[in-house]
Design a protein that fits this description.
The chain is of the alpha+beta class. It has 28 helices and 27 strands.
Amino acid sequence: MADRARHEQPVAAPRVDPGVFVRVAEGGGEARLDLVVQSMHCAGCIGRIERALKELDGVTFARANLSTKRVSVRWDAAALKASAIVDKLASIGFEAVPFDTKLMGVLDETEAKRLLRALGVAAFASMNVMTLSVSVWSGLVTDMEPEMRAFFHWVSALIALPAIVYSGQPFFRSAWASLKKRQMNMDVPISLAITLATAMSLVQTIVNSEHVYFDASITLIFFLLIGRYLDIQARNRACSVAQNLLGLRAVAATVIEADGTQRSVAVETLEPGMVVAVAAGARIPADGLVASGKSDVDTSLVTGESVPEAVRQGTPVFAGTLNMTAPLSVTVTARDENSLLSEIVRLMETAEQGRSAYVRIADRAARIYAPCVHVLALTTVIFWLSMGAGYAAALTNAIAVLIVTCPCALGLAVPVVQVVATGRLLRRGVLVKAADGLERLAEIDTIVFDKTGTLTLGRPELVNAESHSATDLSMAAALARTSRHPLSRALAESVGAVPLPVLTDVHEEPGQGLEGTLDGRTIRLGNRDWIGVAAAGDEEHGGSEIWLKRGQGEPVCFRFNDTLRADAVETIAALKARGFAIELLSGDREPAARSAADALGISVWRAGARPDAKIARLKELADQGRKVLMVGDGLNDAPALRVAHVSISPASAADVSQVAADFIFQGAKLAPVVEAIEVARKSRRLVFENFGLSLAYNAVAIPLAFAGFVTPLIAAIAMSASSITVTLNSLRLNRGQKAEVRI
């Protein structure tokens, strides 16, 4: 038992000198430190933390993030030490440790497992105790013998008491920590009600009274643990975004010395002017310019474009992008911390912290709950004592007030709707990742789309095959089948499994195309410059293209389009009909972006938008008072997904974009975006209805409990009834779920 008890204790964060994690701006001055505060649970915690830190001399910025449990602090490095910040938080009851992704993962995983075990115990106990309680309630109006009733009460006690002690620990510990610092949080009245109801029940069981309240205590714990567990699961996903993105960075780089020798170094040690060798299939370790070589580079990190970019001497390349076809030598132009990849990470971290101002409706309502309930319960005791009632009667009425006002219905108003909504969306292929995503999605008035992989499928298709002879098609496909380039694969697939000419001496010119020989003639398949096609007088195609030239014959052009999703036109029209402003932000070339915008009827669009440009546009819209939904995939969209009011990514998106987004939709259709918005709006309406039901219940039940017309048993039934009412109201969201949302 002793070993088990030790295992159930929360894992304490190791003592670490916070000064080691302080970042000081170049030239001194402002220092910055990110901390993790595990005991931050509600909006009240955010306010106390930020106010306390701003009281310190030298602190210029303090921001707490409830979803990630992070606190970002900036201060004058000459006026304050990092240890003073940690000590200040400790003085108000919050233990803080320097932010570290590995440590954060361990702490959150441990807490999630502990909550899940507590939830399982509470669920088991609730079901069994409630079954016994139903039998007792039925026996009160029948001929149940007092001995049998006492037996049921003792069995309930044997089940409930250990479960309450074990499953209630998250609330008991939080309440005790708050009280030690002379603070008040939502867990204090919860813990008090559970403790008093349990103690009264035990006394009533000993004296063989008709009524005990074990069911109210353990059921309350069960419902509250559900919300607590869902919160930490969402937080775990939110904290891993920047860490996953940094996983794209090369760990080491091969530096080419002046004498031609090579040595391996850490990317952090690279300096501008160094020359690094990048093998085919390796990630480029630093921002720079190609010094020698030709290749194709996957630049989707920067542009979101699915087609690789041909690079040659003098072409700029970026850290984290993938060199695909041939070796390159790259002259470094920026240190690791100043690379584009690092800038994207900083943008994402800034976007995460920017959300800390968001406070959920339930947390705002809960701020006034704790003090009001305690004052009301104390007033009840004083009132009945002054009226000449005994201590037992006064305490019983006070317990009834605490139980009847327990925030079960209030706490369920949001989580139950979320559970029902997420279940419905999951059946429609939409995964809800953010705990407050539905609330934010219901507020949007503007939708910004990425193009490649979002409005389109991200797979190029040959669109002018019928304009070419079978000979040209078969010749081009014969060359294309020897390459892994996306356009080559699309060309080869368009021909199908048919016999093709056999070419000799086939080789690939990195960044240019393919060359082979047939009957003594040179056959080339590649870009227009390599083929020798002049751009003058040629209308630029809105998609991608490659050219075929046989000997001295006229070159022919194979054109490709990234196919729009099958229902993209209908979906955009449906969103417009619902009153949303629609924009397109694409990293693609202007002709491709214009073509997609025209096809979809989108009048506001921008091409060539890199991550910082997308961030700037979203902030511009936010400054205009817009609530923006960002729909995008690709690593270049990850910062924009984070900075938007709410975000959605397709399941085909890059992993980091999926983690950054609040929603993920599956399948080849875009209709799930409309479904998610409709469900979010209905969810918001149901949440407000639930709050109204909860407030109406309290408006009726509290006066009755105060007046002594409600026993603890009736209070428990009323509390359970309010929870059931809120739950049934939330289930209305499933009405008509078999019918697809009309677009």
